[in-house]
Amino acid sequence: MWYDGWAQLAFLLAVLLLAAKPLGSYMAKVFQMQRPPLLGRIFGKAESAIYAMAGLRPDDQQDWRQYAVACLAFNTIGFAFLFILQMVQQHLPLNPAHQAGVGPALAFNTAASFVTNTNWQNYSGETTMSLLTQMLGMTVQNFLSAATGIAVMAALIRALAAKGTGKLGNFWVDMVRSVLYILLPIAVLLSVVLASQGVVQTLRADVTVHTLSSSAVAGGAAETKTAATQTIAMGPVASQEAIKELGTNGGGFFNANSAHPYENPNGLTDFLEMLAMLLIPAASCFTFGEMISDRRQGHVLLATMTAIFIVCAALCFTFEQQRNPLFPSIVGQHHTALAAGGNMEGKELRFGPANSAIWTCIATGTSTGAVNSMLDSYTPFGGLIPMWLMKTGEVIFGGVGTGLTGMLITAMVAVFLCGLMVGRTPEYLGKKIGAFEIKMVSLAILIPPALTLIGTAVASVTPSAVASVGNPGPHGFSEILYAMTSMSNNNGSAFAGLNGNTDFYNILGGLLMLAGRFWSIIATVALAGSVAKRKASPPNVGTFPTHTPMFGVILAGTIALISGLIFLPALALGPIAEGLMQVVH
Fold first, then answer.
1. Whose CA, among 138, 220, 294, 502, lies 20 to 30 Å from 197?
2. How many helices (H) and strands (E) does the chain have?
3. Beta bridge mates, 222
4. CA terminus-to-terminus distance, the chain
């Protein structure tokens, strides 16, 4: 099974690299305002009509303040719309299951979750949200939150390529083009393929079926047997599933998420959904190289992401293919053959430990947070890996747009540290990294970890929050730490032993998600505005090269150093302590 995991990982990465390069080149053309030949004929009139209705001109340029204000204003409107939609869904059409309105605390959390691309779910989708809310609320926000991340990425790349203009493009134009020419075409194609494989796509909400079993009811001297029935939730699942994975969103139609057979029925859909999560983040590295006219820079970023991902995925599926060390003492030595298949608790038989672990590393290395297995059942060290991937800032490969943005910010930290060691003013792509840039870089990097640790500390000493923990000891602490990491880093996955649907977690989690997303965006756009004003210096003998394998090693070390220094004490109290307790038991 260990070799099986390596074979699956190798095949996935091979297909990913083959698909990412042409997509990356295509995305570069989209953000360089070239209209794609085929899709331009399909969506060109719609694009022009949107600009006309909004009073926009595609060549209008914005500075960083205008870009940031437009981004915040747009997402504020989206948040308010989704919040109200949940509260009044019982009065709206397409609610055949007659779901009631959602309470204000849960509605706040869910609106914050989907607007920030987190998709943390403190509710069961099939029993809480109407079809209209799922389509008009969740699915639409899956597109718009993903497009927001892509737009901010495009602004930062333009800043690095700019020659002292101070302009970043136009947020509204970037949003429109991201949806029409990138997200929508791929999502439609993926939806059709998923539907062909059995992923449900219908406006029919529920189906009542007769099961093979029957129920017996005693009536006097006789016993009456009646056929048992089961109600199966249905809905427009394939369309939501496609953009959920492609946009690294992660919120599922069903509570079981991508472990549910109606979201992920077989090995092919599982592979395609994993590929979809990685596709745009990987392609963005090629987009970066094309837009700055130096493909080598994009290659070293992608190589660094891929190398770290391979190590993490290999470690995770290795841990999950080992039996729990306490297993023999529980069931007896003569039953240890039962554990030969690895840690199967919480995993689907159709996926197995290796495939489940690879999926989990993809979903936490990106900002997707979707699950095809239950993470709370992972071994301590197996669960440590996805937790650490989120703590890196989700740059392996990261969310759509945000992954490359985070990697570029980390690259600036790396060249700053190297500059300190040799006594030179740090430069990245010829742009000097000054005091203001370092302040913005520091904010973008440190805000999510600060939110994670503060949220964990507050939840660990609040009685109502501690009461929601499903397990005592280090594992219970891991549940809290994982939840706060997931929400602060806009991931959305969870150790499901924690009951998050309380006023405390709904309100605190919503605030963490909003702060983690938009404070980081403000810092990133401000950084882009400052970098865009600087003219690039020509390379000389003292220039530190950032396109070499050596820089890739330094970049990987910087990622490990930052996350390790910040989070090692917290990890030692949770998964590391739990793992050591099992070993020495």
1. 138
2. 22, 4
3. 219
4. 27
Question: In 3D, which of 580, 557, 517, 551 has the Cα closest to residue 72?
Answer: 517
Instruction: Give just the sign of the alpha carbon dihedral 120, 126, 128, 131.
Output: positive
Task: Find which of 139-143, 319-323, 562-566, 572-576 is predicted with most confidence, using mean pLDDT.
Answer: 139-143
pTM of the entire predicted model: 0.91
CA distances from 558 to 410, 413, 565 (A): 7, 8, 11
Give the pLDDT confidence of 273-328 residue by residue, as tens digits: 999 999 999 999 999 999 999 999 999 999 999 999 999 999 998 888 877 666 65
- For residue 469, report the phi and psi dihedrals to the nearest 5 degrees: -75, 130
Does pLDDT of 337 surpass 50? no
Nearest to 65 by CA among 522, 443, 401: 522
Give how far Cα 90 sits from Cα of 86, 102, 136, 292, Å: 8, 9, 14, 50
Confidence of residue 425 (pLDDT cuts 50, 70, 90): confident
Distance CA 135, CA 116 (A): 17
Q: Which two tokens stand for residue 210?
A: 């007769």
Distances in whole angstroms, Cα of residue 146 to Cα of each of 126, 178, 184, 564? 23, 9, 11, 28
Token pair for residue 125? 């989708």
Instruction: Give just the sign of the alpha carbon dihedral 443, 448, 453, 454.
Output: positive
Let me know: does 519 contact 266? Beta carbons within 8 Å: no
Calpha distance 450→427 (Å, rounded): 27
CA neighbor of 527 nearest in space, from 418, 372, 416? 416
**d(C-alpha 277, C-alpha 58), whole Å:** 30
Two structure tokens written together for 26: 């295509």
Residue 515: name the closest of 112, 156, 153 by CA.
Answer: 112
Whether the predicted pLDDT of 500 surpasses 60: yes
Cα angle 286-148-70, degrees, rounded to a multiple of 5: 125
Residue of higher predicted confidence among 380 and 328: 380
The number of C-alpha atoms within 13 Å of 584 and in the hemisphere containing its C-beta is 6
Report pLDDT digits (tens) over 460-475.
999 989 998 988 888 8
Number of other residues whose CB lies within 10 A of the CB of residue 100: 10
Would you list the DSSP string of 517-532? HHHHHHHHHHHHHHHH
Q: What's the mean pLDDT in 366-386?
A: 89
**Local confidence band at 217 (pLDDT 50, 70, 90 cut-offs):** low
Coarse DSSP helix, strand, coil percentages of the chain, rounded to the nearest 5 percent = 65, 5, 30
DSSP letter for each residue of 122-191: SS-HHHHS-HHIIIIIIIHHHHHHHHHHHHHHHHHHHHHH-SS------HHHHHHHHIIIIIHHHHHHHH
**By CB neighbour count within 10 A (0-12 exposed, 13-18 middle, 19+ buried), where does 466 fall?**
middle
Q: The tokens of 372 are what?
A: 């095809």
Listing DSSP states for 368-383 in one string gives ----SB-GGGS-HHHH
